Amino acid sequence: MPELVIILIILLLIATVVALVTQQLRISYVTGLVLAGLPITEVLSRRIGLDPSLVLNLFLPILIFEAAINTDISRLRSTFKPIALLAGPGSIFSSVIIAVLVKFGLGLPWIPALLIGVILANTDTVSMIAVFKEIRVPSRLSTIVEGETLFNDAAALVSFNLILVVYATGSLTVVQGVQELLVVALGGGFVGVILGYLSLPIFVRLNDPLSSLLLTVALALGTFQIGQFLGVSGAVAVVIAGLIFGNLGLSRSPSASDRITLLSFWEYAGFGVNTFIFLLIGIEINPVTLWRILPSILFVILAYQLGRILSVYVLLAGLRWFDRPIPLRWQHVLFLGNIKGSLSMALALSIPLTVPGRDDIIALVFGAVLFSLVGQGLSLPWLVKRLKISRVSDVMQKAGQLQIQLIASKAAQDELDSLLKSGVLPKAVYEELWASYQVRVAQSERVLRDLYNQHRAGQREGDPSELGRANRGGLDAIRRRLLLAEKGAVSDALRKRIVPEDLVQPYIKDLDEKLLTLEDE
Description:
single chain; about 525 residues; mainly alpha; 22 helices; about 80% helix; globular; sodium:proton antiporter activity; antiport; sodium; Sodium:proton antiporter
């Protein structure tokens, strides 16, 4: 135990140094951790390692839950079609392409080839979110990436376990395979819905933020374990439970400070888990071993890149028939953003010892992950800047600052109302503080109204300038949210039989047409 504590202190010090260096060099923190872990492989790899059971049962639920509670369901709903296309058919399509190429290119049996295909078709949630925190991209693009990686993790685990079932039983028909997928995926979603909603009344009754933290930890880890115990997807269950709690539970918290405490805890938990995972990835990888099989690793890298190319560019080309098309520049980011990470390595290490060529699979996956984290992780920010996706005009910068000020001031006024009603704040002090915030609100609203009027004038005159484009982009994002709110309310009224279907369908069709005409922000 003392030796383990010393190793833990060393890893924390290394991570601190990496944070300082990556800030100075302006490179991804997770990439820096992996590179820092490579030189100390021989020193620490015999004492610690990337335990797949630890990653799958502890680290993965924490990362998925942290991402889920910070994901807005309304944003997911607006980009559901491209997310479903990439995380569903796109993942399967890419897995098959990689498996076929590896099977005939390297001469591996079908089971190892399929396992490599599933493992390397998975996009790492942590890596992509970490990159997008450092560079600004349009909100629709970031939502697509975050949504795909979130559900892609669950899809990878389901497919991986299904292949192991095939290996154990020796045969599985297509119908049986589809049934198994549906049972596992839908069963996981059902477990997540039940546990997510059961946690809400308990959370509302807990007035202590520390007790609320314990509830969320139990929800994240317990949901995964219950799902696994019932034979359904624990990852899908955690995703759904996290989305429900994050969108319905946090809003019911009576205190803003309690919500901040909860979100700050999960942000720190996610950051801590990320730090150890990627540092351990670097320690786990042995560069000497990878050098010996470098040609095979390069072929596997080429295979998964080809699978990603076809799944992104081919599938998204047909998106225009039923949803807003994805700009080509965004597709380039989706292709290069196919970064591998901790889940890929954990799945490789968890392959049963009886599977033929297990050591070869692990070495090939480790080599692909190393290339992905270093090569793609370092080049992705450069690509985004090169494509000018993250360019923000002065007008949009000013509008964004005003919007932040308006949101913050309104939230402060809401908190003041709550303090007044609870008797904590005297009326005189309340009025003085409320008035000071109202000055900021009025100023922000006035300037934003001027920008909106400029936007309307630019629309009438067909203004092609950067000012016109900037105004349209930001305000179209607001119009999109309003149209989605309309669509959700009308659809809910239809479900409750408040309005007749023959009147609702034309209205929803008109809303969809308006949504398709809006520009991407």
